[in-house]
């Protein structure tokens, strides 16, 4: 609490000393600056962490040349990216080619503004905060398309179309699996959702069967939504070079990476807020440590989980990805809503807990048996790789 | 008429005009998206957050993407048409627009909303909106849901592959 009060005190002193006309702008900027700088710094740290961890998983050292243990590698990367030549293809649509990375970064950053970082630390307190989050997330698809189309490159266009198909498909289970938390909390505002999970770890929503299932579904959909491995087919290096980013170089490429990481942080922060108690400590006794610390700790645990998944899972095929979204994730998310409804209707007690667990387990068992029992449809044929040209 | 409203209205109108007049169809769709966002801003200024965000989610996140897919799968977004001046088209189009404008203006003038010119005093609560949806307007909501489901099933049926498998590898053209 003291930490949040301190921040609010600093802000009010700064704002009140400014001239009257500047106050709204100054207030908005003072709210935005810590968020932008914190997540920008986190981006630099996580790129290094990711390379180090992937190196460890693949039995090598990772970057270790710049500074002690390579900790200044992000600085070197930044300087390299800034000094690189910015190449725009001659036939590209210049204005859209320029706007796409900016729009992508904007959508990623806007999502951060509704996350509650502490009981009093919310940049914008929307009553429909989560709708805002998903609305700006939806605009990212348009930015990806703009990047792919404006590059006037087949790989870029293919990559962006794949990305849009994937993001549109996984947006449905993503939103549906977050709806169960909104049902339980009875609100669309994210700070109220976080507030409803106060107390110890046991009152976090992940401690209920529907919350656990919702959290797993939400995390899987998040992986697909931010195009991370194993759902990284939009930028599958071996097939599509770099997908929609193929024709971008220098700083614009870095902006794409920044946007991707910031979107991942925003989604992880949303997961932490929805299912892991947000800024609440796991035990009430630990409440002397400020809320933002707990939120960032949970966020980092999720980011590490994502890096671990990236290091150990093979990439899915495009059709497997779509089948998984529509035949497993969507039905499971809908059944999870029913199970949440039962939990609420039975008074949120142990009876509801048991019934909810039963419904989810039965649904998972039935669905996975049904999906794996069907014979594989047909032999896969490839129109261009197996044609008469290749027969000889 | 606040400054913010003027800026939003001008942006919306300008991008709508651009969406009608630009040559490249993909540019048209992008301009149309800007005008959708402008509409959402108008909802936000009327202090109905949920409707504004839902507008962005549905129109920018889904409808614009749908239009882009339709565009890329049919014409490739490159074709230029409307090269020549066709008076008949302009005449019919103008008449239809005038009729639409007359209907809209007539219904707005008759509605009780027009008498209420004061500032918006009641901030719309998301809860009220949801409750009016599931109590007052339950039947239209269910009908819409049914319609959308039917449309979805129809689309899936059209997209189903024909029965005769396996697809024979097609010979390459122009080789």
Task: Break the fold down into its secondary structure elements and pairings.
The complex is a heterodimer of chains A (about 400) and B (about 180).
Chain A: H1 2-16, H2 23-57, H3 73-83, H4 94-111, H5 129-150, H6 154-185, H7 190-195, H8 209-225, H9 237-240, H10 250-275, H11 291-312, H12 318-345, H13 350-373, H14 388-391
Helix pairs in contact in A: 1-2, 2-10, 2-11, 3-10, 4-5, 4-10, 5-6, 6-8, 6-12, 8-10, 8-12, 10-11, 12-13
Chain B: H1 3-21, H2 25-45, H3 49-74, H4 87-110, H5 126-136, H6 138-159
Helix pairs in contact in B: 1-2, 2-3
Describe the structure.
The complex is a heterodimer of chains A (392) and B (175). Chain A has 14 helices and no strands. Chain A is mostly helical and 392 residues long. Chain A has a domain at 87-315. In chain A, helix 2 crosses helix 10. The N and C termini of chain A lie far apart (74 Å). The mean pLDDT of chain A is 86. With 175 residues, chain B is mainly α. Among the domains of chain B are: 1-81, Up-down Bundle (Four Helix Bundle (Hemerythrin (Met), subunit A)), CATH 1.20.120.1200; 125-155. Helix content of chain B is 70%, strand content 0%. The longest helix of chain B has 26 residues, at 49-74. The relative contact order of chain B is 0.06. The model of chain B has no long low-confidence stretch (mean pLDDT 81).
